[in-house]
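P.,

For your records, the input lines for the assembly:
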Amino acid sequence: MTQTKHIKTLNNANLKESAVKGGCGECQASCQSACKTSCTVANQKCEK
Amino acid sequence: MIHKYKLNGYNIVLDVNSGAVHIVDDLTYEILDYLDENMTKSLPDILADKLSDKYNIDDIKAIYEELYNLFEMGQLFSSDDYEQFSDMMVKAPVKAMCLNIAHDCNLRCEYCFASKGGYGGHRMLMPFEVGKKAIDFLIEHSGTRHNLELDFFGGEPLMNFDVVKQVVEYARSIEKQHNKNFRFTITTNGLLLTDDKIEFINKEMSNVVLSLDGRKNINDKLRLTLNNKGSYDAIIPKYQKLVASRGDKDYYVRGTFTKHNLDFTKDVLHMRELGFTQLSIEPVVSDPMLDFSIKQEDLPRVFEEYERLANTIIECKKNKNNFNFFHFMIDLEQGPCAIKRLRGCGCGNEYIAVTPEGDIYPCHQFVGNENYKMGNLNDGTFNTDMKEMFAKSNVYTKSDCRNCWAKFYCSGGCNANNFQYEGDILKSHKTSCELEKKRLECAIMIKAAMADFNADTNNNSVCDREDCFAECK
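C-alpha cells returned:
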C-alpha cells in the first residue's frame, strides 16, 4: 500500500506484467454459472 | 478506463487495465470527472475553469500532480493492451471436465437448472466404462497440461458413488505414467453421505461443494426430498462431520438465494453459526416468470443486502470471526494472469461436460441441448469447430464486455446463461452482470476497510488472505 496526501493506493498493480509471463493454462477452470461454486476469476490463484 | 464509485464512506477508483485500486479524498474524486486517458504534465485549463471557484487552486494543482504521477506509473488511465492475446488460447487443450456421473437426484429442488436431476432426459447413472473413457479422453486431449480437473456432478453424484470410486482409482492408476495430476472435486446435496464416503471424499477430493441454502425454513422451502419433506435436518450433521475431518483441504458450503430470501445475509451468518467458514451463496438464475426468480426490479434490494453482508463481514473480520464469502474474495495483488482473465471458464474449449451416455457438451449447463452436443466418447467424435467457436468467446468478442469496467474480474460471465436468457453466448445476461458488478464493488470496498483498520490499529494480524482456510484465533 502506498499513500500520498490525497490518494491511498491499495495494491501494486501488475496486470500488465502478468500478461507478459502468463497464459500457461495450468490454473483452475473457473465456472461462471450459478450452479457450481462459481464465480469471478479474480479470486483464483496463479499456478506459477 | 477507470471505474469510480462511493461505498461505505470510501471514494474508490479502479484503474481497469492495470488493476490498481486507489482510495481518494472528495476533491480528488471530483477532479477525476474532468480527466481521461489524455493527461498532460501541465494542469488542464478545464480544472481551473470548473473548480477554482469552489476550491483552492493550490490544492487542485497538488492533487493533479499526484494523479499525473499515477498516470505516468501506469496506474491511472492505463491502456488496454490485451486484445493481442485474445486468440492465444484458441488451440488450448482440454484440461477440465464436468463428469455427470448421475442424471438422477434424490432431491427435487424447485429451482434446479437440470430439470430436478434428469437434465430433461431419462434418469440414468453413468456406467464405469463411460467414466473410464472420460478419463482417457481427458488425458488424450490435455496436451502438455499437467493439472487436470474432474468434477463429479449430477444430479446427485453420491447416487453412483461406486463408480465415482472406480473412476478415481482408474485415474490415479495411470496419472503418473502420463505426467498428469488429477484434481477431483464433487458437488453433493449430502443426503447419502456416510462415514466411508466422507473418508473417501476427504482423501481424494481437492474441493467439495456442499449444498445448503442457509436457515432451515429457507433451505426446506425449495430443497425438497422425493416425499416433499425438507432436507436440512438430514444433511447438517453430515456436513459438520465431513468438514470437521477435512483438515485444511478446500470445501464450500454453497447455497442459492431466491426472491424468498433477499435477506440472505442471515443465511450466510447461519452457515457460519453451524461452524462452517468457507461460504458461498449465489443468486438463482431462472425464468423470470417463476415466483422465486430474481428480476431486474429486485436488484436494488439485492444490492442493499450485498452491502449489508459486506459490512457484516468487515465487522466479523475486525473481531477475528473470520470466514470467507466466495463472491467477495478478490486478490488485488496477484490473482490470475491477464490472459486467463480474457475468458472465464473456458467452456467448450478447455472445459467440457460428459453425460452418462458419453455425450460431450461445452459445459453442464448445455447438457441436453442437441444443438450444442460436441461429440460422444463411444464413437470418438469431438466437434473441433464448435470448440474453436467457444474458444473465440472472450471479453473483446462480447460487445457488452469490451467497454465494461468489470471485464477482467468476471471475464465475460457465463456463456450458458447468455445463451439461455439472451439467445447468444456472446450477449451478456444483464441481470447477472449487474449482480457481478455490485459484488465486485463490495469486495474492493472490504479491502479498503480492512486496510484502514489495519493501519488504524497498527494491527496486521487480522487475516485478510483470500487463500487462508484456517480460522484465525
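Two observations worth noting. Chain B touches chain A through 95 residues (CB under 8 Å). DSSP finds 16 helices and 16 strands in chain B.

Regards
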